[in-house]
Amino acid sequence: MSDTILYDVQGHIATITLNRPEKHNALNNEAYKTAAQFFKAANADQNVRCIILTGNGRSFCAGDDVEEIMSKGGGLDSAISKLDKDKVYSSAPPLVREMLASRCPIISAVNGSAVGIGIELCLICDIRIASEQARFSEMFVKRGVISTHVSFNLIKTFLDRIDQTTCHGMKHCEAVFT
Q1: For residues 24 and 49, what is the distance between their CA atoms, to the nearest angstrom?
Q2: How far apart are CA 122 and CA 137, in angstroms?
Q3: Which terminus of the chain faces fewer neighbouring Cβ atoms within 10 Å, N or C?
Q4: Cβ(107)–Cβ(88) under 8 Å?
Q5: Which residues of 131-160 are buried (b: 16+ CB within 10 A; e: fewer)?
Q6: CA distance 11 to 4
Q7: How far apart, in whole angstroms, are the C-alpha atoms of residue 114 and residue 111?
Q8: Are 174 and 151 in contact (CB under 8 A)?
Q9: What does the pLDDT look like over 10-60, one tens digit per residue?
């Protein structure tokens, strides 16, 4: 396995660290695959009672490494042409599915920017601990694209749980999606 994701178990705590600080821990295909394998391993280890997800360096996760993902395999047109039109696909990556199915509580330790899939990973976690340097952002609205159903469902579910007085009575989902 590569060092794009680090895995360590101390006592009953597994720590999964996104380890691409030079790319602000943006996830490429290898990182997605490795992180999903580590979540699966942590959940299979009966000694593990809790999983901590964090990022190495000054960012938690800057989202997808779109440049690398799209440059491999011919880009979006090639990916679309390879799809079996009669097959139903889940847009939730295996990493997200592994986290959602976790038997262990997951804590995100957010040390910097959490953008795109980075904020989604935080929202999946049971507990989110953010440093004063933490920043959260979804870029869909700023880029004029539609969010994935994973983003939409996670953000709405999370924000519905927050007391509305936090944002001076503004509806949270309204604020995020406009």
Answers
A1: 28
A2: 11
A3: C
A4: no
A5: eeebeeebebeeeeeebbebbbebbeebbe
A6: 23
A7: 9
A8: no
A9: 999 999 999 999 999 999 989 999 999 999 999 999 999 999 999 999 999
